[in-house]
Amino acid sequence: MPRIKMLDMMLLDELFEMGGGYVLNFSDRTMSSFFASELNIDIDDPIYRKDGTSKAKRLRCFLQTVDAQEAVRVLRALWEYRQAIRAQNAVEEKVVNAEGRYLELIGRLLGKPATVVVSPPPKAGPDRTRLATLRDKLIALAHIPPHPRGTAFEGFLKDLFDAHGLKPRAAFRLVGEQIDGSFDLDNETYLLEAKWHNERIGVEQLHTFHGKVEQKAAWSRGLFVSHSGFTAEGLQAFGRGKKIICMDGLDMWTILEREIPLHEALERKIRRAAETGSPYIAIAELFN
């Protein structure tokens, strides 16, 4: 698996405020307690002190000593702690594209294909030109007449999935039904349903799409994208434990505006659906 590089460590120094030997707001005692209670790790072990005894030097040594899976486990815990104390103290984000760059690093350490291009120096972050173009396209769709807008919306989604390396396939037609597209996520094939209506999607259309997915291979899954969203009654009546997840226009805007890797957003939706049975949880809630 990939290991943490020098440029990765420069990003982590920024994210976790490791200048001057510090790590976030930890004291020596609270850092030791955090690693012991949250992660079952003795960060005071001499093996992590070979480069120095400061909190930052011990953390850097730890991350460069352990394997990628263990590094990711620790980085996720530190990120959650970082976000919690920032929210509690209403601290403004100062690191450019912090969340997007952090998620990209996690994905690379886990061996996932890059979803955006990161160019040196590290503060350049992802390819914002392409993301900005997609944001402009999403806004422009609102000004297209209803009939051609549906086809244009499908094209936008194909561009969005292509930009994030999910191998999208354009709309195709089988006997008696239309499939708006498909894409790959973690070696699973997802069928796509895309709607841009003035009204929110109700239970009937959810059941119709679920029926299409059920008629395919047993391992098929589905993503229903409705720009206007879904009715609360429809989601409730649709029930739990289905093979599809749902995304709305606000989700897409959140992904593009906050530069969240699409595969990470979908994976969190899938995980929350597995945990709760609910096909729709807002991206903003999953990344708060």
From TrEMBL:
<dbReference type="GO" id="GO:0003677">
    <property type="term" value="F:DNA binding"/>
</dbReference>
<protein>
    <submittedName>
        <fullName>Uncharacterized protein DUF3644</fullName>
    </submittedName>
</protein>
<dbReference type="InterPro" id="IPR011335">
    <property type="entry name" value="Restrct_endonuc-II-like"/>
</dbReference>
<dbReference type="GO" id="GO:0009307">
    <property type="term" value="P:DNA restriction-modification system"/>
</dbReference>
<dbReference type="GO" id="GO:0004519">
    <property type="term" value="F:endonuclease activity"/>
</dbReference>
<feature type="domain" description="Restriction endonuclease type IV Mrr">
    <location>
        <begin position="150"/>
        <end position="251"/>
    </location>
</feature>
<dbReference type="InterPro" id="IPR007560">
    <property type="entry name" value="Restrct_endonuc_IV_Mrr"/>
</dbReference>
<dbReference type="Pfam" id="PF04471">
    <property type="entry name" value="Mrr_cat"/>
</dbReference>
